[in-house]
Amino acid sequence: MAEKFAVFLDRDGTINEDTGYIDSPEKLVIIRGASDAIKKLNENEFGVIVISNQSGVGRGYFSKEAAEDVNKKLVKILNKGGAHIDGIYYCPHHPDDNCDCRKPRTGLIEMAKGDLNLDIKKSYVVGDKVSDIELAMNAGAKAILVLTGRGTDERNRLIRQPHYIASNLKEAVEWIIKDSDACA
Known about the structure:
The protein is built from 7 helices and 6 strands, in the order βαβααβαβαβαβα. The chain has helices at residues 34-43, 55-58, 64-80, 107-116, 130-139, 151-155, 169-183; strands spanning 6-9, 47-53, 87-91, 124-127, 142-146, 164-166. The chain is of the alpha/beta class and 184 residues long. It has a domain at 9-120: Rossmann fold, CATH 3.40.50.
Protein backbone atom coordinates (compact mmCIF):
# COMPACT_ATOMS: atom_id res chain seq x y z
CA MET A 1 0.00 0.00 0.00
CA ALA A 2 1.32 3.44 -0.94
CA GLU A 3 2.15 5.91 1.78
CA LYS A 4 -0.53 8.53 2.37
CA PHE A 5 0.00 12.27 2.69
CA ALA A 6 -1.17 13.70 5.98
CA VAL A 7 -2.00 16.94 7.67
CA PHE A 8 -1.05 16.95 11.33
CA LEU A 9 -3.22 19.39 13.26
CA ASP A 10 -2.54 20.81 16.67
CA ARG A 11 -5.72 20.68 18.74
CA ASP A 12 -5.97 23.61 21.18
CA GLY A 13 -5.85 26.92 19.34
CA THR A 14 -6.01 25.34 15.88
CA ILE A 15 -9.18 23.20 15.85
CA ASN A 16 -10.75 24.36 19.10
CA GLU A 17 -10.50 27.47 21.24
CA ASP A 18 -7.48 27.44 23.54
CA THR A 19 -9.14 28.13 26.88
CA GLY A 20 -6.28 26.82 29.01
CA TYR A 21 -6.21 23.27 30.30
CA ILE A 22 -9.31 21.64 28.82
CA ASP A 23 -10.14 19.04 31.42
CA SER A 24 -13.71 18.17 30.41
CA PRO A 25 -15.68 17.77 27.17
CA GLU A 26 -18.00 20.61 28.20
CA LYS A 27 -15.11 23.08 27.84
CA LEU A 28 -14.43 22.13 24.21
CA VAL A 29 -15.42 24.88 21.75
CA ILE A 30 -14.64 24.32 18.08
CA ILE A 31 -13.25 27.31 16.16
CA ARG A 32 -15.70 28.46 13.51
CA GLY A 33 -14.92 26.87 10.15
CA ALA A 34 -12.58 24.19 11.55
CA SER A 35 -14.96 21.30 10.88
CA ASP A 36 -15.49 22.39 7.27
CA ALA A 37 -11.73 22.78 6.79
CA ILE A 38 -11.10 19.24 8.03
CA LYS A 39 -13.91 17.94 5.81
CA LYS A 40 -12.16 19.58 2.84
CA LEU A 41 -8.94 17.74 3.73
CA ASN A 42 -10.94 14.49 3.89
CA GLU A 43 -12.46 15.18 0.47
CA ASN A 44 -8.95 15.72 -0.94
CA GLU A 45 -7.81 12.37 0.48
CA PHE A 46 -5.37 13.65 3.08
CA GLY A 47 -4.91 11.73 6.27
CA VAL A 48 -5.91 14.02 9.14
CA ILE A 49 -4.14 13.45 12.42
CA VAL A 50 -4.45 15.47 15.61
CA ILE A 51 -1.22 15.84 17.58
CA SER A 52 -1.26 17.65 20.88
CA ASN A 53 0.81 18.31 23.99
CA GLN A 54 -1.47 17.68 26.97
CA SER A 55 0.84 18.39 29.89
CA GLY A 56 -2.19 18.88 32.14
CA VAL A 57 -2.10 15.10 32.59
CA GLY A 58 1.56 15.10 33.66
CA ARG A 59 0.97 18.10 35.90
CA GLY A 60 -1.88 16.27 37.65
CA TYR A 61 -4.54 18.80 36.54
CA PHE A 62 -6.64 16.06 34.92
CA SER A 63 -6.46 12.34 34.12
CA LYS A 64 -5.69 10.55 30.86
CA GLU A 65 -9.35 9.52 30.85
CA ALA A 66 -10.40 13.18 30.97
CA ALA A 67 -8.06 13.98 28.05
CA GLU A 68 -9.49 11.07 26.09
CA ASP A 69 -13.06 12.18 26.86
CA VAL A 70 -12.25 15.60 25.37
CA ASN A 71 -10.79 13.91 22.28
CA LYS A 72 -13.91 11.72 21.93
CA LYS A 73 -16.09 14.83 22.05
CA LEU A 74 -13.88 16.45 19.38
CA VAL A 75 -14.36 13.43 17.09
CA LYS A 76 -18.12 13.44 17.72
CA ILE A 77 -18.45 17.15 16.86
CA LEU A 78 -16.34 16.80 13.72
CA ASN A 79 -18.24 13.70 12.59
CA LYS A 80 -21.51 15.59 13.03
CA GLY A 81 -20.11 18.22 10.63
CA GLY A 82 -19.17 15.54 8.07
CA ALA A 83 -15.45 15.56 8.91
CA HIS A 84 -13.33 12.76 10.31
CA ILE A 85 -9.97 12.33 12.00
CA ASP A 86 -7.73 9.39 11.13
CA GLY A 87 -5.95 9.43 14.46
CA ILE A 88 -5.34 11.39 17.63
CA TYR A 89 -1.95 11.29 19.34
CA TYR A 90 -1.07 13.29 22.42
CA CYS A 91 1.80 13.68 24.83
CA PRO A 92 0.55 13.34 28.43
CA HIS A 93 3.94 14.11 29.99
CA HIS A 94 5.17 17.02 32.04
CA PRO A 95 7.54 19.30 30.07
CA ASP A 96 10.39 18.30 32.43
CA ASP A 97 9.96 14.56 31.68
CA ASN A 98 12.25 14.79 28.62
CA CYS A 99 10.06 12.40 26.60
CA ASP A 100 10.27 11.84 22.85
CA CYS A 101 6.59 12.57 22.24
CA ARG A 102 6.42 16.18 23.43
CA LYS A 103 6.36 18.63 20.55
CA PRO A 104 8.67 19.83 19.00
CA ARG A 105 10.16 16.33 19.21
CA THR A 106 8.87 13.99 16.53
CA GLY A 107 7.64 11.03 18.62
CA LEU A 108 3.93 11.64 17.93
CA ILE A 109 4.52 11.92 14.19
CA GLU A 110 6.65 8.75 14.24
CA MET A 111 3.85 6.87 16.05
CA ALA A 112 1.29 8.03 13.48
CA LYS A 113 3.62 7.20 10.59
CA GLY A 114 4.02 3.65 11.86
CA ASP A 115 0.30 3.17 12.52
CA LEU A 116 -1.06 4.80 9.36
CA ASN A 117 1.66 4.35 6.69
CA LEU A 118 2.27 8.08 6.13
CA ASP A 119 4.75 9.92 3.91
CA ILE A 120 5.98 12.61 6.30
CA LYS A 121 8.13 14.41 3.69
CA LYS A 122 4.96 15.18 1.69
CA SER A 123 2.90 16.03 4.77
CA TYR A 124 2.04 19.23 6.65
CA VAL A 125 1.90 20.36 10.26
CA VAL A 126 -0.58 23.10 11.19
CA GLY A 127 -0.53 24.78 14.57
CA ASP A 128 -0.60 28.00 16.53
CA LYS A 129 2.65 27.62 18.47
CA VAL A 130 6.39 27.73 17.83
CA SER A 131 6.56 24.09 18.94
CA ASP A 132 4.27 23.12 16.03
CA ILE A 133 6.47 24.90 13.50
CA GLU A 134 9.61 23.37 14.99
CA LEU A 135 7.96 19.93 14.97
CA ALA A 136 7.29 20.26 11.23
CA MET A 137 10.88 21.31 10.56
CA ASN A 138 12.28 18.52 12.74
CA ALA A 139 10.15 15.91 10.95
CA GLY A 140 10.79 17.22 7.44
CA ALA A 141 7.15 18.23 6.85
CA LYS A 142 5.86 21.62 5.69
CA ALA A 143 4.97 24.03 8.50
CA ILE A 144 1.91 26.29 8.65
CA LEU A 145 1.29 28.72 11.48
CA VAL A 146 -2.32 29.70 12.11
CA LEU A 147 -3.03 33.02 13.81
CA THR A 148 -5.90 31.61 15.86
CA GLY A 149 -5.25 30.57 19.46
CA ARG A 150 -1.81 31.84 20.43
CA GLY A 151 -0.63 32.20 16.84
CA THR A 152 -0.50 35.99 16.70
CA ASP A 153 1.73 36.18 19.81
CA GLU A 154 3.78 33.12 18.83
CA ARG A 155 4.51 34.61 15.41
CA ASN A 156 6.97 37.01 17.09
CA ARG A 157 8.77 34.09 18.77
CA LEU A 158 9.38 32.01 15.66
CA ILE A 159 12.85 30.51 15.43
CA ARG A 160 12.42 29.45 11.79
CA GLN A 161 9.88 30.76 9.31
CA PRO A 162 6.99 28.46 8.43
CA HIS A 163 6.16 27.64 4.83
CA TYR A 164 2.93 29.61 5.22
CA ILE A 165 1.12 31.78 7.77
CA ALA A 166 -2.69 31.54 7.68
CA SER A 167 -5.31 33.51 9.53
CA ASN A 168 -7.13 30.27 10.44
CA LEU A 169 -7.42 26.57 9.65
CA LYS A 170 -9.70 27.18 6.65
CA GLU A 171 -7.08 29.37 4.98
CA ALA A 172 -4.33 26.90 5.88
CA VAL A 173 -6.26 24.07 4.22
CA GLU A 174 -6.81 26.12 1.07
CA TRP A 175 -3.04 26.72 0.87
CA ILE A 176 -2.25 23.04 1.54
CA ILE A 177 -4.53 21.88 -1.28
CA LYS A 178 -3.00 24.36 -3.75
CA ASP A 179 0.54 23.49 -2.61
CA SER A 180 -0.04 19.73 -2.85
CA ASP A 181 -1.53 20.12 -6.35
CA ALA A 182 1.51 22.17 -7.41
CA CYS A 183 3.86 19.47 -6.08
CA ALA A 184 1.99 16.56 -7.71
